Target: RNA polymerase sigma-70 region 2 domain-containing protein
Amino acid sequence: MTPRIPPLHWDEIAARYMQLRDGLVQYANRLLGGDRHMAHDLVQETFKAAALQWETLRTRSEGIQRAWLYRVLKNKVFDQWGAARRCVESVSGQDMVSELETPRTAISNLLLQKCWKVIDSMPCAQRRVALLKWQGEWTNHEIAAHLDIAASTVRVHLRNARNTLVAELGDEVVFPSEWRDDGPGEEAAV
Model:
């Protein structure tokens, strides 16, 4: 059972939240590479943690409270990164070669595994866009709306991700045309 926040502290916590929320959201948004929705969620979680510790925090100076909130928020962002990395590792870490696969399928699966590792090493915003596009099969407009960025920014991140994959893995990497936004065609090499 989750501990309850004592009602006598609600006003103090709400005042501190209103005072620091925007700065915390900007900080989390910057760390998350532009995911404003996740930034808001993590700020909420940070204030839940603060509320549960408020009996101790309220006796501290405003500067110490602020530092505590930013540190907890940063840790929550790092936890989020770790969760995203574990998700990618679980996909790329699967035994991708079975006895029933043909040599061509086995090679394709090994290339895919290498692709996920390269994507995992990309900058945060680029990695998020690439995962939403290529793993989640989202449209550019869905990604833009979810991350609260322009569709043109999504296209730039995808182009940079494709270029990184080609630079790391060579021209064997092929992208379906609907992932390229280049026009009609079944498949096109990058």
